[in-house]
Amino acid sequence: MKKIILLFAFFSSTLIFGQHTFSIVAVDPVTGEIGSAGATCIDAQDGALAISDIILGVGAIHTQSYWHPTNQANARVRMEAGDSPQEIMDWLVANDVSNAPASRQYGAVDLNDGSPRAAAFTGDECFAEYIHVTGPNYAIQGNILISEEVVTDMEAAFLAETGTLADKLMAALQGAKRPGADARCLDIGISSASAFIRVADPSDTDSSYGNLSLDLNVWITSEIFEPIDALQDMYDASLGINNFETSSYSVFPNPAKNYITVTSNKSTFNEYELFDVGGKLIEQNISAKENNRLVLDVSARKSGIYFLKLRNNGVILTTEKFLIK
After folding, report:
1. Are the C-beta atoms of 302 and 234 separated by less than 8 Å?
2. Considering the entire predicted model, what is its pTM?
3. How far is residue 122's CA from residue 106's CA, in Å, rounded to a whole number?
4. Residues 136 and 257 in one domain
5. Structural domain tally of the chain?
6. Which of 193, 211, 238 is the last residue of a domain?
7. Which of 144, 298, 303, 310 could form a disulfide with 20 if both were Cys (CB 3.0 to 4.6 A apart)?
């Protein structure tokens, strides 16, 4: 899998803090991939992302509901020591940093030499609704949910998707998507305020945030939008997919050095936004005239990966990825 990294922010406000969320950890024993995805009604860069911990070549752990960094660090140590997911659950409950395991929720999965194992734990003092489900290669867990169906629908979507592990994780998040999936977001009509998807393949050497083969993170900042759909847009862009035929848009040259030319053979656009790989908006332009061609001077930009979002009267048409040498 080619390296795809994105931390993407659109707007700015803070809703409520407190690592309550819905999430999934899963592995693919055939490819050796390890995945982690989730969402929460916390509108911060590390809102949902903070729960994710992938141990390269081994498995993944999510620690959520009254999240504590020491519990998460301990979970990693136990997995690195060779504990099974169930043994990790048992250890965390017995050794909670605040002696408050009833308020915690955990999920873990490992590859186990091609025979994956999964386990989860949900304390009875988590915010309702709360539930977890597990299968041979996945654990899905959620709390402060509008209903238990958020998690069971995640499971159904994950199992129904026949694509890659990343496809299945993205499908699981879409399965959860509904107003108030995290109940705190119901009043503003969205599922969550931040969402992420991360997949490590066997070639990865650094599991820190932003360094896996697939590492996408979306959070809102002032104007309300649906983070799971925004994450889907970023995921599709990372694969070169959009709502139009793949030949509808072209970016040339790519990689670029001085200029890029973007053309569309089907749609016109009157707005573009340029983001760096860290999700920072670095250039924006709105025109009164609709065009199907854009020439952009990138000669002053640093080398690296960039994302160009095209809109027509506010409607997102596509997000194109390109490289500046």
Report:
1. no
2. 0.72
3. 7
4. no
5. 2
6. 238
7. 144
Find the length of the chain.
325
Give the amino acid at 85: P
pLDDT digits (tens, 9 = 90+) for 256-286: 888 999 988 878 899 999 987 666 788 999 8
- How does strand 304-312 pair with strand 269-276? antiparallel
Give the residue among 289, 276, 22 at the shortest CA–CA distance from 146. Answer: 22
Residue with structure tokens 């998040």? Answer: 173
Q: Is 192 helix (H, G, I), strand (E, B) or coil?
A: coil
Peptide bond into 255 cis (omega under 30): yes
Tokens of 143: 């709390």
How many Å apart are CA 107 and CA 307, to the nearest integer? 33
* Residue 104 structural domain: 4-238
Is the model more confident about 3 or about 271?
271
Instruction: Give the single-character DSSP code of 137.
Output: T
**Cα 322 to the chain's mean position, in Å?**
21
CA quadruple 163, 169, 175, 180: dihedral, nearest 10: -160
Whose tokens are 């030499």? That residue is 113
Pairing label, strands 59-64, 21-28: unpaired
131-135 vs 4-9, strand pairing mode = unpaired
pLDDT digits (tens, 9 = 90+) for 110-147: 999 999 999 999 999 999 999 999 999 999 999 999 99
CA dihedral (120, 199, 304, 280) positive or negative: negative
Encoded tokens for 183 = 């109940």
pLDDT value of residue 245 = 39
Q: Identify which of 286, 278, 269 has the alpha carbon closest to the alpha carbon of residue 305.
A: 278
End of a domain among 238, 272, 305? 238
E strands in the chain: 4-9, 21-28, 33-40, 52-55, 59-64, 105-110, 117-122, 131-135, 138-142, 194-200, 214-219, 249-252, 259-264, 269-276, 281-291, 293-297, 304-312, 315-324
Question: What span, in angstroms and rounded, lies between the C-alpha atoms of 122 and 108?
Answer: 12
